[in-house]
Structure formats: C-alpha cells, structure tokens
C-alpha cells in the first residue's frame, strides 16, 4: 500500500492491508485505487480532531488534556486511528509506559 500526505508530499510508507482497511473504515483515509490509500488528516489535523472530539477532556481522569493517547498501544497491535486514539492529559499519557506518541506519529512521516 502507498499513500500521499494531503499537503502533496508523497508518502511511500508501506502499510499492511489490515491497517489500510482500518484507516479507511474509521474514516481516517480514503481509497485512491487498489494499491493506494490517502490519509485525510495530517498529524496536526489528526491530533486537533481527536482533542476537539473529546472536548480536551482526558479520557482517563477527566482533567483537561492536550495530548492524544492510544487505547491499545501500538506495541500491542494498536493503530493510530480515530477509534484507537483518545484525548489524554500529560500526566496520564506519560504514565502509560507502552505509549510513545512521537514515535507513532513519526511512523507516518
Ligand atoms: Zn488524565
């Protein structure tokens, strides 16, 4: 699978078909053709969208949050999709040892 970022930069990361399917199903990407998907959101837009959806409220403790976290850590097979990501405060985010958001986002660069 291949994709393009929406600012026109080509994105040649190979993704496995299951992830591609998940991204499309959760409306994070659209199918361009049989071999290419295109992500709808850039990393910043994605983060903004999750925070807006959750009203900047930490999923774990209910305090104000401005970071996003994965419900199922990527190390355990979770993907960076709208369904798997929630708003989290700094404290809760950092207390989750398996989660490294920067690493997740870099995986999409
Ligand atoms: Zn919290």
UniProtKB/TrEMBL annotation:
Pfam family, one: HNH_5
Domain HNH nuclease: 45-94
Transmembrane regions listed in the UniProt entry: none
SMART domains given in the database record: HNHc (SM00507)
Keywords in alphabetical order: Endonuclease, Hydrolase, Nuclease
GO molecular function: endonuclease activity
Keyword field contains Hydrolase: yes
InterPro entries (alphabetical): HNH_5, HNH_nuc, NA-targeting_endonuclease
Presence of keyword Nuclease: yes
Protein name listed in UniProt: HNH endonuclease
Top-level taxonomy: Bacteria, Bacillati, Bacillota, Bacilli, Bacillales
């Amino acid at each position: 699978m291949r994709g393009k970022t929406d600012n026109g930069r080509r994105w040649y990361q190979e993704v496995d078909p299951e992830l591609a399917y998940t991204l499309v199903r959760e409306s994070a990407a659209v199918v361009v053709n049989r071999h290419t998907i295109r992500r709808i959101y850039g990393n910043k837009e994605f983060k903004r969208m999750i925070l807006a959806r959750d009203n900047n409220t930490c999923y774990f403790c209910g305090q104000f949050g401005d970071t996003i976290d994965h419900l199922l850590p990527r190390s355990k097979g979770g993907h960076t999709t709208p369904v798997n990501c929630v708003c989290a405060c700094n404290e809760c985010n950092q207390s989750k040892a398996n989660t490294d958001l920067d690493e997740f986002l870099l995986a999409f660069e």
